[in-house]
């Protein structure tokens, strides 16, 4: 935990510098709007850091009850800190809480309205938290599923497999419902993003859903599988609803369609697969009160962890690239927000080098920790050594 938190400190510091150096137009224009959220995120971070330190270094110095209580602020600060970041992103997708005067300056800023009365905050926040439980659950379960396949099936490994797997398998089906909520929010407030998801060229009543395929410049989708009226049903819960097409805005206002479309379908496809895997586990567990016995299940769990990470990244590509060419949707274009300074390539090179060293260091540290025997194994060896085991 300390190793990963330290990595988060480094990456978070880099991100704060990046915001100022790479996005000066965005920061100078809208800093009054989202500055509150970043301030609260900073407070959350310091509270989290303080109580993580107390939790780790007071293990033998506090009673068990007091020790576990020191972990509660870590959870609370983690939630509030990430919530502030997601609130800013939700505002970027659905800007409100400010006015723009005749000179183009941002005025009449209402930060609480902008951040916390935003219709995109709660679906996006819920979608992200459920995704986090899915990713972490399947990643941890995948490690112990691999050990299970190697024959390591003691009580420790069984518990370490079942707990994160149960959490992930409860979250995965729920994500399908949360995703529907988030998609309908996009349909209402960002219709061009929805049209990009589906490659819908023309405004259509009773719009079809097209699975797979490649969007062509002439507005057709090659090699796709079309399901009549499904898009209208999913977006508006009405099979005859009208869905706005890509042809309703100038070409300069369109995102890169295939990037958004492939990312969206990757996210949905993997998410559906994880929900199927979850159903397999839950059915076996509640029906037969045991884990599945086939090796194919554990192989699928091993693959589910990396697949969940891919789905998470694809989801963020869907959200951010789908908003283009706007950094603040409908208000400020990305080209207006980004730095025009020379030498940015050297900054990116430095970032890549720092991240490469960080990844290698974290991997090395975690591998060293993983190779150390568990306390239970040490106790068993000591018992054998002194003749009592």
Uncertain residue ranges:
none
Beta-strand share of residues: 5-15%
The number of helical segments is 14
Could you tell me the mean pLDDT? 89
- Integer-rounded radius of gyration: 24 Å
Distance between the termini: 33 Å
Count the beta strands: 10
SS-based class:
mainly alpha
How are helices and strands ordered from N to C?
HHHHEEHHHHEEEEEHEHHEEHHH
**Widest sheet: strand ordering:** 1-2
Helix content: 55-70%
Q: Describe the biggest sheet?
A: 2 strands, antiparallel
Based on Cα principal axes, name the global outline.
Answer: globular
- State the assembly state of the protein chains: single chain
Structure characterization notes:
It is a single chain. This protein has 389 residues and is mainly alpha-helical. The protein has a domain at 122-327. The protein has helices at residues 2-22, 24-57, 64-69, 72-93, 111-116, 121-149, 155-189, 191-198, 230-236, 257-288, 295-322, 334-337, 344-371, 375-386; strands spanning 99-100, 106-107, 204-205, 209-211, 214-215, 221-222, 225-227, 242-243, 326-328, 332-333. The strands form five sheets. Strands 1-2 form a two-stranded antiparallel ribbon. It has a two-stranded antiparallel sheet with strand order 3-8. The longest helix has 35 residues, at 155-189. The model has no long low-confidence stretch (mean pLDDT 89).
